[in-house]
Amino acid sequence: GSGKSGYLRRFALDCYEDSNRDNKVLLLSWGEYVADHNKNTYEAYPKMHIWDIGALMLEITGLEKSDATKHEEFYTKYLPELAIKMLPDSDFGDYDMIAIDEFQDVATRPVVFEFIRALAKRPDFIGTRLILAADPRQQIMRDPGMAPVEDPWAAALALTPNLVHVNLRENHRNSEDIGVAVEKIAREKHLYDTYKIESLDDSIEIVEVSENTQPVKLRDSLLKLRSKFEASNICVLSPYRDESAAGLVLNTPKLNPIGEEIREMLTHDSEERGKSFASTIQKFKGLESHAVLVTD
């Protein structure tokens, strides 16, 4: 990543703190963990509304997550259509700024577009500043069977034709050592002109494992990281949740001694202190940690 989420938060805060106006600001994401992080960061700003888009639609309609099983296309059609109808009777809408993170994941959901439009002062966004952050390569939160959007910015023009596309060529998120290593692993071409983060303490290591050795290597890697970082500053990520190396340990009642050691070090609860947070890559997207261990 380039640090676009940080830019977006900064723009939202600048708009909120504009000394000449009492601005009403909405900071949106398509991810609960990112929204929770933003709420904790800006809890001192009560008029800055910070939401995961799905959670905001649930709040407006009064529905629960469990209702998703009762309707087809719940988050992509049924819920946004209902939220649009109920929006006038809610405390939301009429925003001076709407900032949307991870817009490439929103771009695949056209009915959600109309919900976002309804949150502005006018359908053409006159009077509402709209800022979107997106990377077309990072569409990892699509619904099953949903095709990716080739150009999120072309999709964004359906909201308003007055957008200006700024291409971030400077990386403000990680050091060059990390960036270049990830480019090699992902077989990506050179992505950025310059890196603005300087660090003498960054490193990347690949640990070869097999199905039989992964538990031992996971334990050893966790212990190695815990000798340098606090447990809560280490996260363990995987493309999978319950079927991941960490998930299997956390969900299996009886384990061998190595499994028990790992379980004592991990948690699925992001608020639990003294343990390392285990998550899917998808849900952790947009967040950061001092140390990251990727399994599976």
Summarize this entry quickly.
With 296 residues, the chain is an alpha/beta fold. The protein has twelve helices and ten strands.
Sheet with the most strands: spatial strand order: 2-1-3-4
Topology order in helix (H) and strand (E) letters: HEHEHHEHHEHEHEHEHHEEHE
How far apart are the first and last residues' alpha carbons, in Å?
A: 21 Å
Kindly state the percentage of residues in helix.
Answer: 25-40%
- Amount of beta strand: 5-15%
Uncertain regions spanning at least 5 consecutive residues: none
Mean pLDDT: 88
Broad structural category: alpha/beta
Cα Rg: 21 Å
- Please tally the β strands and state the result: 10
Approximate shape: globular
Oligomer type:
single chain
- How many helix segments? 12
Major β-sheet annotation: 4 strands, parallel
